[in-house]
Design goal:
Length: 283
């Protein structure tokens, strides 16, 4: 993809904005073109095609999605149109160029943990179902690359997209958070994700990759670590269990094995606790 214009959808979100921001440091001679919702409505399929024909990008990194569980569960048709059909339209346009698609650990049911790329998805949520369906489309693309991520934090343009931002915003509002001690993810930071994805882009990588921290952490432990960093927010955390939860099914352990992508990267994926201890950005 060297020297080519690269579309980055979802540039108003956490990962998309970080990809654009970090390009000068990590993208080499790739030229990102950030596309935010304010700039182009991805559900305006004719408009997307016109812009594609006009700009002729040499690759697409597709970050845009409806990812909030509440929205996906309450508006499944909207979620499918955004997460699946918009992806299909972009893939049709990008038939001859590299296409990197962001997916999620939530394509798995959480019964196993330490999932490798070859494990069979079995999503429990509408969001996971739409991502699995989109993966199936991307997998048919000869230059398609699927990147499954876990909880991702950082500094988003609106200040509410990273898991750290959601937790801190709740504390700022004086809320106490019920956090499970028996639900596990592999949290990581958007700068780590962006650096790794730019390396995949530079290699024109094809296939499915897991990208997150090599350390699985409970929801409660995530909150505890963030609370220790922000005593000024008077953090309130209530230890709870999935067994006490009443609502849509939640996977127990969607930890991902990242050995495959690690073999391609020039830097080690850091454990979340280690990265957080060294961070100076106010995560």
């Amino acid at each position: 993809m060297s020297g080519k214009l690269v579309w980055v959808t979802g540039a108003g979100g956490l990962i998309g904005s970080e990809l654009v921001r970090s390009a000068s440091e990590w993208a080499g001679d790739l030229q990102p073109r950030g596309l935010s919702h304010a700039e182009i409505e991805l559900l305006d399929f004719p408009g997307v095609e016109r812009l594609f024909r006009a700009e002729r990008p040499g690759a697409i990194i597709h970050c845009a999605a409806v990812s909030r569980s509440v929205v996906c569960e309450s508006e499944p048709s909207f979620a499918r149109r955004t997460n699946v059909e918009a992806t299909r339209v972009l893939l049709d346009l990008a038939a001859e160029i590299p296409f990197i698609f962001f997916s999620t650990d939530l394509v798995f049911d959480g019964e196993k943990g330490d999932y490798v790329e070859e494990d069979s998805p079995n999503p429990l949520s509408v969001y996971g179902e739409t991502k699995m369906a989109a993966e199936e489309i991307v997998r048919r693309h000869p230059r398609g690359c699927i990147v499954r991520i876990s909880l991702t934090g950082g500094h988003s343009p609106k200040g509410d997209r990273g898991f750290n931002e959601e937790i801190k915003n709740a504390w700022k509002a004086g809320k106490a958070l019920n956090l499970f001690t028996d639900e596990f993810r592999c949290p990581t930071a958007a700068p780590i994700v962006a650096r790794a994805v730019w390396q995949l882009a530079s290699k024109s990588a094809v296939g499915t990759f897991h990208l997150c921290s090599p350390e699985k952490v409970s929801r409660y432990e995530i909150g505890r670590l963030l609370g220790e960093r922000h005593p000024d927010l008077n953090p309130k955390i209530i230890r709870s269990s999935r067994e006490e939860y009443k609502g849509a099914p939640r996977p127990r352990d969607t930890s991902l094995n990242c050995a495959k992508i690690q073999s391609l990267l020039t830097f080690p994926l850091p454990r979340f606790g280690d990265w957080l201890a060294a961070d100076t950005t106010g995560f």
